[in-house]
Specification:
Layout (H helix, E strand, L loop, with lengths): L1 E2 L5 H10 L5 H12 L13 H10 E2 L4 E7 L5 E6 L5 E9 L2 E5 L3 E3 L14 E4 L2 H10 L1 H4 L3 E6 L9 H12 L11 E5 L3 H10 L4 E5 L5 H7 L2 H4 L2 H13 L5 E7 L7 H13 L3 E6 L13 H12 L5 E3 L21
Parallel strand pairs: 1-2, 6-9, 9-10, 10-11, 11-12, 12-13, 13-14
Antiparallel strand pairs: 3-4, 4-5, 5-6, 7-8
Bound molecules: S-adenosyl-L-homocysteine (SAH).
S-adenosyl-L-homocysteine binds next to strand 10 and strand 12.
Length: 340
């Protein structure tokens, strides 16, 4: 049976027309699903018995099954969900001031095999559906009440390798009848999947874009991110420039800093011209340890030197403090494992 939560509001309107109902019904159903968190059609009291029965015959109302909840010393929370067909995914809730950010997964596993990341270590299993992507935020809705909510598509997987379902999930999250999350409060992060970036540009949303750069030369990027062999730096940068030209909101460059690998002064100097072309800020993320990988985080002095070299080139740079490291919830540590 089809999960009704896999439909955007527009798709649900079409379904209503197909069932001989008015499109207004779709808005009512959306309200029940996302504002009132109702999980049975029978409880949607203003729909009338006959529509309730049609819906019950035609659709299920899916939800994620929580199988683990881990709390970090720094208040970060990691949610482990089991999907209906068995595999697990993770979502992270990060609190800072009055703001809460949900870090959402878009795939089970990952195809792209970045050398420093846990998410691709066991390969790729499948795309998440729109219902499963949006469902992670829906599940946390209660915890988000009264806080400004941001959604970052930076969990397991590559969002721009699952564009169709990502688009639908963003629509459900954004819709005033859904979760009412403003586009500018959402950020899609990509390893630089050029066709996905082109697709994202065409959507013309005011959603932010992050590019996981991690290296300023093709030689180094090829060794850290095999996807660079398919979509080399120049193509990724050109796709970013095109996004900006067509009214894209802003780009952040993410840079995982790994000891002795990409943390030299020359590496920092190489980043500046790229950031200037993309009018972007650089977000430096000290490497978070991943079990089984040989990398290390640079010492404090080296990190500061890296930041200063970039600043001296008049490029704005921030240091992202890793959150949730003690519960393996930091960037690149999500692997959807139950036993660790
Ligand atoms: N596939 C997308 C979405 C994942 S976002 C992307 O690559 O952008 C997760 C971010 O954490 C990416 O920037 C990723 O490169 C980074 N990351 C991966 N492993 C990491 C690690 N061990 N330490 C710190 N950051 C890491």
């Amino acid at each position: 049976m089809k999960d009704i939560k896999d439909l955007t509001l527009d798709e649900l309107k079409s379904e209503m027309m197909r069932l001989g109902e008015t499109v207004y019904r779709a808005e009512q159903i959306f309200g029940w699903l996302y504002k009132k968190s109702v999980s049975r059609f029978g409880d949607m009291t203003n729909l009338g018995r006959s529509l309730q029965e049609k819906l019950t015959r035609g659709f299920s109302i899916g939800s994620l099954e929580l199988v683990g909840l881990f709390r970090s010393k720094d208040r970060t929370e990691k949610y482990l969900f089991r999907l209906h067909d068995g595999p697990c995914i993770e979502s992270v809730l990060i609190s800072a001031g009055g703001r809460k950010t949900v870090c959402v997964s878009t795939q089970v596993g990952c195809k792209f095999g970045c050398a420093f990341c846990a998410s691709g270590l066991n390969g790729f299993i499948r795309n998440l559906t729109a219902a499963e992507i949006a469902g992670q935020v829906v599940f946390l809705k209660e915890s988000l009440e009264r806080a400004t909510t941001n959604v970052v598509f930076m969990g397991m997987g590559e969002p721009l390798d699952n564009c169709g379902n990502l688009d639908k999930a963003m629509s459900i999250l954004h819709s005033p009848k859904g979760l009412s999350i403003a586009a500018r409060r959402m950020t899609v992060s990509t390893a630089g999947i050029v066709p996905g970036m082109e697709h994202f540009t065409k959507l013309g949303l005011q959603v932010n874009l992050s590019i996981s750069l991690h290296a300023a030369t093709d030689a180094l990027r090829n060794s850290l991110m095999p996807v660079n062999k398919k979509y080399p730096l120049e193509k990724v940068i050109a796709a970013g420039e095109d996004y900006l030209r067509r009214g894209g909101r802003k780009i952040t460059l993410e840079y995982v800093l790994i000891k002795g690998i990409n943390d030299s002064t020359a590496d920092a100097e190489g980043l500046a011209p790229i950031a200037k072309r993309l009018r972007s800020k650089i977000n430096v993320i000290p490497y978070s340890p991943v079990i089984g990988l040989p990398f290390e985080v640079p010492d404090k002095k080296r990190i500061l030197n890296f930041l200063k070299t970039i600043e001296d080139k008049n490029v704005s740079v921030t240091l992202r403090q890793s959150k949730g490291c003690d519960i393996l919830a930091a960037c690149g540590q999500l692997a959807g494992r139950i036993n660790r």
